[in-house]
Design brief:
Order of helices and strands: EEEEHEHEHHEHHHHHHEHEHHEE
CATH class: Alpha Beta
Shape: globular
Number of strands: 11
Strand content: 5-15%
Helix content: 40-55%
Strand order of the largest sheet: 3-5-4-6-7-8-9
Radius of gyration: 19 Å
GO molecular function: catalytic activity
Mean pLDDT: 88
Structural class: alpha/beta
Number of domains: 1
CATH superfamily: Alpha/Beta hydrolase fold, catalytic domain
Largest sheet: 7 strands, mixed
Organism: Actinoplanes xinjiangensis
CATH topology: Rossmann fold
InterPro entries: AB_hydrolase_1, AB_hydrolase_fold, AB_hydrolase_sf, Epox_hydrolase-like
Oligomer: single chain
Protein name: Pimeloyl-ACP methyl ester carboxylesterase
């Protein structure tokens, strides 16, 4: 457990070689937990002697971490929390950050609020099913008028839930919500394991977390921050049937982030790490390998002030 300055405790899992040349930090989505990344963690472990150190943690107010204060249910706080996780568990060496949905927004907030640390440490960036423009492009797969009406109702409901404390009474009604969540969060295919993990993550989230983070998520604007992240290898993934962060979100991120590689996964929805784990794992492994090659090059001795290795990062 990592105890933060305001007393919130984060549940952090660390795996992989202690002397790994690269550390991967995984940040999950809204109302989910670190188990979202279980298939990617397994893929990284399968890299054998080239495997990275892996840090996966439950965001405040999610999973096995303790509840958050309502005033701290913001993306700005999550960016600061990520900074603390990295300082505590990866104090040196290159880092690859991966964020899904709200986790991707957390990565952007970390870059915005801690630009010097970010520039010094981060050597790879994976943004999955996320947005840098709040709810600008979110239509839930509905016509504009219906989407506007639904958003108004969602915003009102979120405000009520945010004031409901750390209760989890929604666990009782989750089975009834399963068909709607299946439609909203997944695309053409949905394995039972993926749906079960998604439902369990939602069942662990207190009402305060479900409602409290909504305002911050809906209003964040970080395209300008992304535009300043030059020289960092980056991959942006989105499902073609994502109803929460549709392809337009990923396209704007890739357009702002210098050199980012955009992949639109046909037929997939919002839960890409669970829904299409192989595609997400492949992108993450590629970034880790690139970061490791760069770290190896940077460690090599120089001759006359010039590196003897000209291998591309």
């Amino acid at each position: 457990m990592l105890t933060l300055a305001d007393g919130v405790q984060l549940h952090v899992s660390v795996s992989g070689p202690k002397d790994a040349p690269v550390t991967v930090v995984l940040s999950h989505g809204w109302c989910q937990d670190r188990r979202t990344w279980r298939r990617q963690i397994a893929a990284l472990d399968e890299m054998g002697h080239k495997a990275p150190r892996v840090i996966a943690y439950d965001t405040r107010g999610h999973g096995r971490s303790s509840a958050t204060h309502l005033r701290a249910a913001t993306l700005a706080q999550l960016g600061d929390d990520m900074a603390e996780v990295i300082r505590r568990y990866a104090p040196d060496g290159p880092v690859v950050l991966a964020g899904h949905s709200m986790g991707g927004m957390t990565v952007m907030e970390y870059a915005h609020r801690h630009p010097e640390e970010f520039a010094d440490r981060v050597k790879g960036l994976l943004l999955v099913s996320t947005t840098a423009e709040g709810h600008t492009h979110t239509r839930y797969g509905l016509p504009d008028q219906l989407a506007t009406l639904l958003r108004a109702g969602e915003t009102l409901g979120a405000g009520l839930l945010a004031r409901s404390g750390a209760w989890r009474p929604h666990r009782v009604v989750l089975p009834a919500l399963r068909p709607a969540l299946r439609w909203l969060l997944f695309g053409d295919e949905c394995a039972d394991e993926a749906m079960t993990l998604t439902m369990r993550g939602l069942g662990r989230a207190p009402l305060r977390s479900i409602g409290g983070f909504r305002e911050s998520i809906g209003t964040q604007l970080r395209l300008d921050t992304l535009a300043g992240l030059s020289g960092i290898p980056a991959a942006v993934l989105v499902g073609s049937r994502d109803r929460l962060t549709p392809p337009a979100c990923a396209e704007s991120i890739a357009g702002a982030l210098p050199g980012a590689e955009l992949t639109v996964v046909p037929g997939a929805g919002h839960m890409l790490p669970l829904e299409r784990p192989d595609e997400v794992s492949a992108a993450l492994v590629t970034l880790v390998r690139r970061a490791a090659r760069r770290a190896k090059r940077d460690r090599r001795p120089t001759v006359g002030g010039q590196s003897r290795c000209r291998e591309a990062a």
